[in-house]
Write a structure and sequence with these properties.
single chain; 3-stranded parallel beta sheet; 3 strands; globular
Length: 75
């Protein structure tokens, strides 16, 4: 199964993209920055995985991608 990361997955567009990709059979990891509660609700609804990521911080992005690779393999 292919893994896709949706940045800003807790927002309206990100949530819709996450749901559409999950419905098409992809393994989806969504990232969130400020709305963990909403991200968790979306993940529970869709079966996606949530990962914190501040896209303005290179170390945060690297940590998020490393975590996804560790749990899901290649992105």
């Amino acid at each position: 199964m292919k893994t896709i990361i949706v940045t800003g997955g807790s927002g309206g567009i990100g949530a819709a993209v996450t749901e559409k990709l999950k419905n098409r059979g992809y393994d989806v990891v969504l990232t969130y920055f400020s709305n963990e509660e909403k991200a968790e609700r979306i993940c529970k609804k869709t079966g996606a995985k949530c990962v914190f990521c501040d896209v303005k911080d290179e170390k945060s992005v690297k940590k998020a991608f490393d975590e996804v690779r560790k749990t899901h393999g290649e992105i």
